[in-house]
Amino acid sequence: MQWNLRLRAAERGIWKSAQMRRMLADAGLEISAGKMSSWWAGTPPTMRLEELDVLCAVLNCTPNDLMTPEPDKVAARRPRGSDAANGNGDDHPKGGNGGSAPTVAPRLGKPRSTPPM
Question: Where are the alpha helices (DSSP H) in 1-117?
């Protein structure tokens, strides 16, 4: 996702993170200077929905205005040559795993053992 907080804030005349932080506090969202810095400087690694809700209310925008999908980055993360991406369900070619990590099969009907007492 591309994070567009600074662009949306600038469209509303907010040029400094401290000003944005004060506006969020006035709306009932107290956040640390460090968290505000991570939101302001780049893409936040996590964000609570309630935080996003207040942020959108302060900026009078929607989550779609703050985040833009980047499908090319998602495609680049997929393993090359994966048949699963092609939809046939086979994760490995016939006749072995070709040097890749072993397939992990689910343990249906075989629950984990209980921890020692």
Answer: 5-11, 17-26, 33-41, 49-59, 63-66, 71-77
What is the helix, strand, coil percentage profile of the chain, to 5? 45, 5, 50
Calpha distance 108→36 (Å, rounded)? 46
C-alpha–C-alpha distance, residues 30 and 4, integer Å: 21
Q: Are 22 and 80 in contact (CB under 8 A)?
A: no
- What distance in Å separates the CA atoms of residue 26 and residue 102, rounded to the nearest whole number? 54
Nearest Cα to 24, choosing from 56, 46, 47?
56
Per-residue pLDDT tens for 11-52?
Answer: 999 999 999 999 999 999 999 999 999 999 988 888 999 999
Q: Which residue has the tokens 């680049």?
A: 76
Domain borders along the chain are 2-68
- Residue 91: left (phi > 0), alpha (psi -120 to 50), or beta? alpha
Class of domain 2-68: mainly alpha
Total-model pTM? 0.61
